[in-house]
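Q: My labmate handed me this sequence with no annotations at all. I'd like to see what the chain might look like in three dimensions before we decide whether it's worth expressing. Could you predict it?
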Amino acid sequence: MSQSGGSGEAENPGREQAREPEQEQAWGPEQQERLRQAWVDKPPKLSGRVRLAEYDASWPELYEREARKIRSALTDGVLLLEHIGSTSVPGLAAKPVIDILLAVADPADEQIYVPALERAGYRLVIREPGWHQHRVLRGADPGVNLHVHPPGSPEIPRNLRFRDRLRADPADRELYERTKRRLAGRDWTYMQQYADAKTEVVEAILSRADVG
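A: Here is what I predict for the chain of 212 residues:
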């Protein structure tokens, strides 16, 4: 499971074992069932190939707009809020969806944050209690994937290390973009398959970030 949240879009580095794209495309019943269980409703299928957009200088501004909305909705309930994913990396092509990482005290206690976020225009789409209590809410204008974790989730530092490495290292940024463009040219049933297919290069970049 993700992006991107299951439909992706969010980068969840290291989530799955690396597999070849052709194997990803041929997911079996077990993988499809895991995806189905994670989604509150039926997981959406891709209607075509993954669409990447050239970097848009408005993406940080869109994040800031959403951040203000989230902070207004949750006030002191926001323990951490960060722009993550490819739209947070200047110069990097990306799916035009703003990925946001939110830490709350206990994502399992959905009443402390989901109703307020729903009133602000978000919708809960993914619930993964067995994976760091991960939740994903989506916003529509602009497209947003809001990833919710508890403060101690290892995915928080992993996402931030990955983002910061791509911001700081042109070679790794170019490598990641080449990988994304190559995989975006393939046919996938679910966005999560595209996300999983990036795992090997994501892990390699993270290993260099850890050394650096």
